[in-house]
Write a structure and sequence with these properties.
Shape: globular
Number of strands: 34
Oligomer: single chain
Strand content: 25-35%
Distance between the termini: 11 Å
Structural class: alpha+beta
Helix content: 10-25%
Number of helices: 9
Radius of gyration: 23 Å
């Protein structure tokens, strides 16, 4: 096969304040390019790295002797009925758990939160009181699985061996218990697969407020992902994506949950009320974040509605569905139904949504069927989207028609809603990414963008940056703003472009070598740490 031409430019921008930013530009024919999800070949590498990094974070928060418990979730989730057929699988709030991963995470949080777990001479032991027989059975089953497969780790710091006994009566479950999903070092993939180009792509759950739900885990990506014509992940929020049609053409566009229909194993179709043709057999219409007979709730529930009219919550993320007797609600992550609850009041995960049915709308037959096959699939509603063969949604949009579309309102238009700190000390958990600079033209950081030029070639721009608090003015690249990234891509010939995940994730590999300086420092200026990510773009 003839070697494909790749145009590569590396340069340094000098800013007026004496700082600089190093950038890499790549331009190439899209033949052989694809987006893929990745996972570390050796899972122990992933477990140890996450546990150590979270220990460093705890030190940075001021903890003097942090204990980190990290565990690997199942790489391929399985129904509770298949893996734990004899276990009681309801939460205290009344949610029935269909997902084995959800049950494992919920169990670990409960055991550690109540001080019912001990580490003794290299082994874990459940110490559930005799009166809590259900929790003893559940804890022993989950612990047996995690220990037998080497999925559980206690981290006390580099080189520190645990004492004979470690108790967890005062353990901070929210901050120091880390469920770990699928993610990997891009370098690991590059060494094995030898792509000519590889770079990080999708947003993923990283901060504690990103994976507060026991249905979620560190490392799990979110946003529209289409692979081989199949929608693997739905578009949760109205954000920009780059996609390829069956004829090979690449474009950008904006997608939300209202652009797809949700299809159940029995053939029932749930579609946005704005797209459902009148009298469609076997279908029902949903409203997005508005109470109706069928509603889809995302983390945006409670924020500004269409037309700029605020809800009764005055524009705050409500975080859970309204209480309503008899209402049946399903928690859905990617293509998996992970839980079911009746009566409302269901927590809404960052990387999924809740599908809510008024009493009597969802038949008992369907509920029974879902316990056996807790899966859904998706289909684009618009005809112009139905030939999409691959797509990745991140955002915000940077270029359209050859011109920058970076404006002060762009992030709001694409439903970015970060954590909010109030004067009384309360923190309102926002919408992922929960820690994202809410400006387009002030904050410089490591960033990657991808675009399409007039000839249909792909253009990738990566700018190195360093995590907050670890920059050395004379030695470290300072990244760019979103507006500056748009200008870089336009100067390189792109006419349409979107922003990808950046910050400490910013990595571009070219012909096996790292073309950007890793932005992680772990508080050690001059020391570079590469970050694991769950998805990459690769050119073979």
């Amino acid at each position: 096969m003839r070697f494909q031409y790749i145009e590569k430019i590396q340069d340094r921008i000098h800013w007026g304040d004496g700082t600089f930013s190093d950038h890499t530009l790549l331009r190439f024919s899209p033949a052989g390019f694809r987006f893929v999800d990745i996972d570390q070949q050796d899972p122990q590498v992933k477990l140890k790295d996450v546990a150590y990094l979270r220990w460093v974070k705890a030190i940075g928060r001021g903890e003097t002797d942090p204990r980190i418990v990290a565990f690997l979730r199942l790489e391929r989730d399985r129904p509770v009925s298949e893996l734990f057929p004899d276990l009681h699988c309801h939460t205290k709030a009344g949610e029935e758990l269909f997902s084995a991963n959800s049950l494992i995470t919920h169990t670990m949080r409960t055991l550690l939160g109540r001080g019912w777990l001990r580490y003794e001479r290299g082994r874990w032991r459940v110490t559930v009181p005799a009166r809590e027989a259900v929790w003893r059975q559940r804890g022993e089953a989950v612990l047996a699985l995690l220990e037998s497969e080497g999925r559980l780790r206690l981290e006390l710091g580099p080189g520190v061996r645990p004492p004979d006994t470690v108790a967890f009566e005062d353990f901070d479950v929210r901050l120091n218990l880390i469920p770990v999903g699928r993610l990997a070092f891009p370098r690991d993939l590059v060494w094995r697969e030898r792509p000519r180009i590889a770079f990080n792509t999708a947003f993923f759950l990283l901060e504690h407020n990103d994976f507060f739900s026991f249905h979620s885990a560190l490392g799990e990506p979110y946003g529209l992902f289409v692979q081989d014509g199949v929608i693997r992940r739905p578009p949760l929020y109205r954000r920009s994506a780059i996609f390829q049609r069956a004829n090979g053409q690449w474009q950008t566009g904006t997608f939300s949950l209202e652009d797809v229909s949700i299809i159940f194993p029995d053939g029932m179709v749930v579609t946005s009320e704005s797209h459902l043709p009148p009298g469609s057999p076997g279908s029902c219409a949903f409203a997005l974040n508005v109470q109706a007979n069928v509603t889809v709730y995302t983390r945006l529930y409670g924020t500004a509605s269409r037309g700029g009219i605020l809800s009764l919550s005055k524009g705050r993320v409500l975080g859970r569905t309204p209480i309503e007797e008899g209402r049946v609600e399903l928690t859905i992550i990617d293509q998996r139904i992970v839980g079911l609850k009746t009566g409302g009041g269901l927590d809404i995960p960052q990387n999924g949504f809740v599908l809510s049915f008024a009493q009597g709308v969802l038949s008992p037959k369907v509920s029974t069927m879902l316990r056996a096959r807790p899966v859904v699939r998706y289909r684009f509603m618009r005809r112009e989207h139905q030939d999409i063969v691959q797509a990745l949604q991140v955002g915000p949009l940077l270029l359209q028609g050859g011109r920058s579309v970076v404006t002060a309102t762009r992030l709001a238009e694409e439903e970015f809603w970060v954590d909010r700190q109030y004067a009384d000390g309360r923190v309102e958990i926002g919408v992922v990414p929960t820690e994202f600079p809410d400006d387009m033209d002030r904050t410089r950081a490591g960033r990657i963008g991808i675009g399409v030029d007039r000839e249909g070639w792909l253009v990738v721009a990566g700018v190195a940056g360093v995590e907050k608090g670890a920059k050395r003015l004379e030695a470290d690249s300072h990244g760019v703003t979103l507006a500056e990234l748009a200008d870089l891509l336009a100067d390189a010939g792109a006419v349409e472009a979107v922003n990808l995940d950046g910050g400490g994730s910013t990595q571009i590999f070219f012909l096996g070598g790292l073309a950007t300086v890793a932005g992680g420092r772990l508080g050690l200026p001059g020391v570079h740490y590469e970050r694991m990510v769950p998805s990459v773009g690769m050119l073979f």
